[in-house]
Amino acid sequence: MAYSNQLDLLEPINLSDHLEKIELYLGQVCQIAGISKMQLDYWTNKAQIPTKGKKQRIYDIEALETVMLIKQGKDKGLNLGAAIDAARRFRETNRQLV
Description:
Elements: H1 3-9, E1 23-25, H2 26-33, H3 37-46, E2 58-60, H4 61-75, H5 80-97
Antiparallel strand pairs: 1-2
């Protein structure tokens, strides 16, 4: 099979269709969100962010989004409680729009 014909077999992949399958470890979430492991641990407990795993926390894409929204709120001057509340309300509002 010629090279150009092989390329014709491939189609673009929409990665957003697969995001719900992604599972991230604590260190990966910290790296993406730009926070420390201590912060993530504290925020996870304080905001009651659901995680999987027994020995090590595993975060799904929704948990990552929550962490990043909390970080955004903190960066804009909100205290942690207000940032958590804003993240929850933002997610609820956007969920209704979808």
